[in-house]
């Protein structure tokens, strides 16, 4: 991790920004995110599948499911619930002080489904 940060610090920002045809502030933001989100991929459990939930058409508001956290971002976590599209568990839905990590298996509730936009909103569910 320290080696990666050291390499990022050694970049010639003005030269690289010109080569990539982007602004220096944009490039600095990208580099900061690369340094910050250096996530090591872990071997994750496969999604927990249910025979009655095969696609987005089978989802309905209030349905309780188990899911595997696939990605954690500033605004919440994307959870694989066994359909093609991961659902978003917004950070305001999380219990206070809870920190999720990639690979966690959690209980969720379907809050809304927008099949035409490919969006699933999730809420926290106690197991």
- CATH topology of the largest domain, by name, is OB fold (Dihydrolipoamide Acetyltransferase, E2P)
| Average residue pLDDT | 83
Largest sheet: 5 strands, mixed, barrel
Along the chain, the helix and strand elements come as: HHHEEEEE
Strand content: 25-35%
Which structural class fits the helix and strand makeup?
Answer: alpha+beta
Question: Unreliable stretches, pLDDT < 50, 5 or more residues?
Answer: none
Which value, in Å, is the CA radius of gyration?
19 Å
The CATH homologous superfamily of the largest domain is named Nucleic acid-binding proteins
CATH architecture of the largest domain: Beta Barrel
State the helicity in percent bands. Answer: 10-25%
How many strand elements? 5
- Indicate the CATH class of the largest domain: Mainly Beta
Number of domains: 2
Cα(first) to Cα(last) distance is: 36 Å
**Approximate shape:** elongated
Structure commentary:
- The chain has helices at residues 2-9, 13-20, 24-36, and strands at 64-73, 76-80, 87-90, 105-114, 119-124.
- It is α+β, with helices and mostly antiparallel strands and 127 residues long.
- It has a 5-stranded mixed beta barrel.
- It is elongated and about 55 Å long.
- The model has no long low-confidence stretch (mean pLDDT 83).
């Amino acid at each position: 991790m320290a080696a990666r940060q050291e390499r990022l610090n050694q970049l010639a920002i003005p030269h690289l920004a010109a080569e990539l045809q982007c602004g220096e502030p944009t490039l600095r933001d990208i580099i900061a995110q690369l340094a910050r989100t250096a996530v090591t991929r872990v071997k994750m459990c496969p999604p927990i599948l249910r025979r009655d939930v095969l696609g987005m058409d089978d989802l309905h508001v209030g349905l309780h499911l188990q899911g595997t956290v696939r990605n954690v971002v500033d605004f919440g976590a994307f959870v694989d619930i066994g359909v093609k599209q991961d659902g978003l568990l917004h950070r305001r839905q999380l219990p206070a002080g809870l920190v999720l990590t990639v690979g966690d298996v959690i209980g969720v509730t379907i809050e809304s489904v927008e099949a035409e936009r490919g969006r699933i909103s999730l809420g926290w569910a106690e197991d």
